[in-house]
Write a structure and sequence with these properties.
Distance between the termini: 77 Å
Oligomer: single chain
Radius of gyration: 29 Å
Number of helices: 6
Helix content: 55-70%
Order of helices and strands: HHHHHH
Mean pLDDT: 76
Strand content: under 5%
Structural class: mainly alpha
Low-confidence stretches: 107-116
Shape: elongated
Length: 191
């Protein structure tokens, strides 16, 4: 395995500054100049270029995952039953983002070339598998709860509508047969 990227070895605050500059679209030369102003001489232009390529891939993946999460929120609206599912999705988003930051940690090793995948220790792989399992279980539980609440709301609305048919039927002199047909059409048994 190659050496860890010179950018990744930077102090987290300096690396965050590099990320901000990349996010604002500054050129590699501008960022190198800023690093030199900050007293950082250990990062080459080519290492920064490789880091930028990885950074842009990660930004794109995060953007797509946010779009998916936004679509889920739009579909479920402000339903309280969905909050646990959204929290789980955000937690997994954080885990995946951390993993994506590990892609290509051997970028300074010219012979090794950029890494195309994330290398996980067995324990990390097991923890990720557990997290995915918990996420899918939580999602299933949330979906079941939403379905149950919707069924109960439908049942209550149907009962209320049936009672309205019975009440209005008595007041207006609706025939028992017509009232029965309306109630059957609503899926309600009895008169």
């Amino acid at each position: 395995m190659g050496a860890v990227s010179s950018v990744r070895r930077l102090d987290p605050q300096i690396r965050e500054e590099v990320n901000k500059l990349l996010d604002h679209g500054l050129t590699l030369d501008s960022i190198i100049a800023r690093l030199r102003e900050m007293g950082v001489d250990s990062v080459s232009r080519s290492a920064l270029g490789r880091y930028r390529q990885r950074f842009e891939k990660i930004v794109e993946k995060v953007r797509r995952s946010r779009e998916i999460a936004d679509a889920l929120v739009r579909n479920f609206g402000d339903e309280t039953e969905d909050k646990a599912m959204r929290a789980n999705i955000e937690m997994m988003h954080g885990i995946v983002s951390d993993m994506l930051m590990q892609i290509g940690d051997n970028e300074d090793d010219e012979e090794a070339g950029p890494s195309d995948g994330v290398v996980l220790a067995p324990k990390d792989a097991m923890n990720l598998a557990k997290a995915l399992d918990h996420l899918s279980r939580a999602k299933k539980t949330d979906q079941d709860a939403i379905l149950k609440i919707r069924e109960e709301a439908t049942k209550k609305a149907t009962e209320k509508a049936a009672e309205a048919v019975r009440t209005v039927g008595k007041k207006t002199g609706m025939s028992k047969d017509l009232k029965q047909q309306i109630l059957l059409a609503m899926g309600v048994q009895g008169n």
